[in-house]
Amino acid sequence: MKVLGILGSPHTNGNTVLLLDAVLAGAAAAGAETEKINLADLQLAFCVACGRCYAVGECVHDDDAEMVKEKIGEADAIVLASPNYINSVTAQLKTLMDRCSLQIHCQVWRGKYGAAVATAGGSGEEEVAEYANAFLRVCGAQTVGVTTARAAGVGALQDQEAALARAEALGKDLMAAVAEQRVYPEQVAANAAFAERMKQLVLHMAEHAPFQYDYWEKMGWL
Ligand SMILES: Cc1cc2nc3c(=O)[nH]c(=O)nc-3n(C[C@H](O)[C@H](O)[C@H](O)COP(=O)(O)O)c2cc1C
Question: What is the pTM of this model?
Fold first, then answer.
């Protein structure tokens, strides 16, 4: 089983990565093959809302976003990690999210599991992590939980030992969810309602966005 961690912080040795690495270590201890991607090391252009992905299944940009999405596609579980930047995720992670619009319309990450971690200087870390998980759910995944911590300096967390232990436990639970194919009934219901909205959107856009229409048809969802 594969678990992919995606770090949205520009600090690849900062606070957030401590939590992400601990989640991945927990998953690895439970038998996962883990991989980490630092978005800060990649080329990621902004979505320009041209609609080309909906129409032909390809982006106008030829950069690293497609590689990241391929790796997500190969993973059983994804862990998103971001510091709180003005009560949201970093621009790096948000840019990746915006580049996943087709993946949302096509609900491509159904059957996957996710979790999120966030850190903050003083507040908002829970909301940021919940926001990251909400993104995974609109792509079709189920989310297992979040873990958060506040900064105590550069590369240091408040109550670090306890924070890392919670993060490791989340990684183990993520793996348990994958292994038992855990079902979260409230998320399944919310995902089904959201997918129905996507279906109506795909039908409405069919003439100008044949790629996503064909995908839904091929999946037998229309
Ligand atoms: C641009 C920017 C915006 C930030 N916004 C907030 C904020 O709104 N609330 C907060 O508590 N901390 C904020 N912080 C602090 C970071 O969330 C915090 O230091 C975090 O642990 C940094 O993680 P990192 O080392 O992984 O980058 C901000 C930091 C930066 C650089």
Answer: 0.98
